[in-house]
Amino acid sequence: MRIIKNNLSNIGKAPCDCESNDGLPYVPKKPLPSKNFAMLISGAPASGKTNLLLQLLMSHPTKKNKEKPLYYYGLYDRIELISPSMATLPSAFLKKLPDQQKHMKFSNDLLEDIIESMYDGDNVNNLLVIDDSIRDISRSIPLSRVFLNRRHCTHNCEMVSETMPHTASLSIIVTSQKFSLLPLEFRNALSDIIVFKSSNKSEINRLKDEVMFDLSPDVQDQLLDEAWKEKYSFLYIKPNMPLNQKYYIKFDLVEFNN
Q1: Tell me, which fold does domain 29-196 have in CATH?
Q2: Under DSSP, is residue 88 helix (H, G, I), strand (E, B) or coil?
Q3: What SS3 class is residue 236?
Q4: Residue extents of the structural domains in the chain
Q5: How far apart are CA 70 and CA 58, in angstroms?
Q6: Backbone φ and ψ of 234, nearest 5°
Q7: In what helix (H) or strand (E) does residue 174 lie, and over which residues does it extend?
Q8: What share of the chain is helix, strand, coil (3-state, %, to 5)?
Q9: With contact defined as beta carbons under 8 Å apart, do 98 and 118 qualify?
């Protein structure tokens, strides 16, 4: 194969205001994304997925523990939580959310109302958390639009002003007991995938085929064994990144030998 160079291939990058981090109180430490992401946290009951979700939203340094990690605490202007398991979530988390931003059951009408309210409001950093609702969302057309157009569906150009110059953003976190229970259309739009230990062979093979295809079978097995050898540990995959920035055990980057 021969490639003949052409200067038309020097394609620049157009400015994209919706990806700017201007207006955020801080930028999360990598590999965490800052805005407009779609994250799946997958794990069996008691795997640690709900604890991880809560830590992402609640953990922050304190006077007593200055080394405590900061993930997303205080980053979002508005968090909408949909969870039929809300009664089991800690009050320390729930009391930080206004009652009108806590919902017991997912529905298309609810989602459309949330997105419309975000659009009609100020252009701020929004987060939608859908917990323990995987069966309810499987055929949701409005949620499909959110996954595919999350950078755009809450930004209102008419709300931009000198005092509010920033663009709105919408990120989404979904929890599921299995990776494969999230519909393929949604899985293809994920920017971040967190998978706790699974003993289901078909589930593991689905993960390997869809996301870990750039690794040999031996390396796939080695990586999963290493990621899951400790209780509550997980594999974190950023599917849109190059190999040297794609795989993490918890939040520790995995480097591969050439």
Answers
A1: Rossmann fold (3.40.50)
A2: helix
A3: strand
A4: 29-196
A5: 8
A6: -150, 160
A7: strand 169-176
A8: 30, 15, 50
A9: no
Where helices occur in 179-216 by DSSP H, the ranges are: 184-187, 201-210
CA 173 – CA 122 distance, rounded (Å) = 21
- What type of residue is 117? S
Q: Dihedral through CA 207, CA 208, CA 214, CA 217, nearest 10?
A: 160
Residue 71 has, within 13 A of its CA and on its CB side, a CA count of 11
The CA-CA-CA angle for residues 142, 51, 35, to 5°, reads: 45
Nearest to 226 by CA among 241, 244, 247, 201: 247
What's the pTM? 0.90
Q: Facing residues of 194 across strands? A: 41, 236
Give the pLDDT confidence of 186-200 residue by residue, as tens digits.
999 999 999 999 999
Tens digit of each residue's pLDDT (9 = 90 or more) over 151-161: 777 766 666 65
What's residue 15's pLDDT?
64
> How far is residue 24 CA from its own chain's centroid?
17
Phi first, then psi, for residue 131 (nearest 5°) are -110, 130
* DSSP structure string for 149-185: HTTTTT--GGG--SSS-PPPEEEEEEEES-GGGS-HH
Amino acid at 21: N
Residue 111 burial (10 A CB sphere; 0-12, 13-18, 19+):
buried
Distance CA 214, CA 183 (A): 22
Q: Could you tell me how many helices (H) and strands (E) the chain has, helices first? A: 7, 9
Counting every residue written for the chain, the total comes to 258
